[in-house]
Amino acid sequence: MATDKSADQCGYRLPKPRGWDSKEFVDGAQWTETGSGDVVCLRPPWEDSENCIWHAETKNKPVDGLISARSDGPERLPKAYLVGTKFDIPISLSNCLLGGSNLSGSYLKFVDLSRAGLKDVDLSGSDLEDAHLSESDLKDADLSGAYLRNADLSGADLKDANLSESEPQFAYMSEANLRRADLSEADLGGADLLEADLRRTDLSGTDLAEANLLMADLRRADLSEADLAEANLSEADLAEANLSGANLRRADLSRADLVEANLSGANFRMASLSGADLRRADLPGAYLRETALSDANLEETNLSGADLGNADLSNFHLAGADLSGADLEGADLSRANLEEANLSETNLRKVDLSGAGLEEANLSGVYLRETDLSNVSVVGTNLSGADLGNTDLSNFHLAGADLSGADLEGADLSRANLEEANLSGANFRMTSLSGADLRRADLPGAYLRETALSDANLEETNLSGADLGNADLSNFHLAGADLSGADLKEADLSGTDLGEANLSGTNLREADMPNANLTDADLSTAILRDAILRGATLEDAVLSAAKCRGANFRNARLYQTVFRDTRINSATQFVKQGDDFFGKCVYEHSPAEILASDKETFDYDVHPYEAAAWTYRRLQSLHEENALSGRTRQFHIRKEEVQRKNHCREQNYSQWAIASFSKWLTNYGESFKRLFLGWVTTIMFFGLLYPFLGGFAADSTNESYRLQLTLNPSVSGIFESLPILAQSIYFSIITFTTIGYGDLYPTGLLSKALVGLESLAGGLLIALFVFVLGRRVAR
Questions:
Q1: In this predicted model, what pLDDT tens digit does every residue of 332-352 receive, in sequence order?
Q2: I need a labelling partner for 459 at 20 to 30 A (CA). Which of 55, 282, 563, 652 fits?
Q3: Where does the chain cross the membrane (predicted)?
Q4: Candidate ranges 101-105, 409-413, 752-756; pick with highest mean pLDDT
């Protein structure tokens, strides 16, 4: 700036620049200091200008004039105005202090600016091709749009400088300090940035193709969308740098530090990342086909959506890495450490995972068909929704693994350990689970049709809602398993142990369950239509609201079985029966065999006869509830009959005699035929006794009817006795029915006693008739 001056002085005044006294300058007589700390230029004015040739605000100054005004040696020329000046002849400004000068649009090819102080200099749009700027101080300088091809900037300090849209192709910038410099959209193709300091530098969109960045410091630099094709970044420090969308085709990043770097969408085709440290780096959507990754550290790296097709990642440490949605088709991941890695929705088709560690890894939705999984450790791995069709998982340790919704069609899981695994909604169609350990595994909603389950352990397994139609589960151990809501239509469960299993709401229609153990099982609301349960043990089982129409329970053990609101029909069988016979339950039919059987299958506190009585009583009620009166009567009869047998077994002969009389007389209150036969027998018995024991007489004629105890055996004697016997039968009938017409009366003491007995017997037998009739009507 101008100040008061004499006519022979420049008088340009400015605050004393930093570094003013940093070295010995040759222009001591050309400057003076004021008391306020400013400095004033004492050079003579130039031509018609008020200021010297250096400070006059005139464009295109003559170079020869500048050379003439130049002192020999280091000179202080701050705030020089050299806009548009064409230095077409060599001039040295080496070691000069030019801070704040304006050289925009100048031609500086032949100017030596090495070790010059160029802080805050404006070099925008200037031509610096082949220029010497080594070790110069260019902090905060403006080099935007400058042409720097082949320029020597080695060791230069370009901290916070603006190099946007500049063209330093093949420039020599080794060991230059470019911290926080703006190199956006600059063309640095082929530039030599050996060991350059580019920390926090803006290189977004910059052309660095073939640039040498060996051992360069690029920490937190912005290289987004930069072109680094064939660039040498070997051993460069790129920690936390932004390389998103960068083109790194054929670039050498061997042994580079890329910890926590942003490499999303970057193109690494045929690049070398061997030995690079990529821990916690972000590479989502990056292209890594044909990339050399040997010895690279990818621990906790984000490779989501990355293209790693055919990549060699054998023996890699990828613990905690994010590979979700990545394309790894044909890649080699043998013996790789993928513990806790995220591989969800990843394409692993034809991948070699042999010997890989996948403990606690997330492989949900992964495509694993034709993948080599031999010797893979998948403890606690998340394989939910994964496509494992036709995969060989035999003998695999999958305990606790999450395979919910996985497609395992045609896979081989024979002898696999799936203990406590989550297999809900998984597709096991045509899968082999033979010999697999599925204890406490979760398979709700799983599809298990046509699945080989021989020798599989399903103890306490959750199969609620699973589709097991036509499944062969014969002789399986399913004690405590949850099969609620499962579809077991036409399944083979013969001899299967389902003790304490939950079968509520299960579809067991036409299921084959002979000799199955269903002790304490919950079959409430289950569909057992046309199911075969011959010889099954259902003791303490719950069949509340079960649909048992057409089911076959013959020889089944039903002691303490709960039949509440259970639906049966005439086709439901509990005992063997025909048109003229009704069979016995297993407790009554084979008590000795039951007593000799395994104690675990029967409660020894109760004798088989007592169990039979309880069973008949419950079946009687069940059939009555379902309006099956004929069978209700039959089960009542069987109940009373087995109780009669039990009285005899317990030597309770009085009760046995009463029960036997009830059986003979009314078939336990169920037979009109036997009751009528009792009537006839009683009438005939007393009718035959009256003539021999006192006789009787007619009231109207006083004629007596009496016979001797010894009858005339002749024909004539018998015929003579017939009228008396006929009258006696008539007398017995009116006495039995207590009609009492009064035309006949007993004449002897014994006959009177007989009349009293017959009247009593008749009243009782008629009352029994009313009772039996009432039972029939009530049903």
A1: 888 888 888 888 888 888 888
A2: 563
A3: 676-698, 718-741, 753-773
A4: 101-105
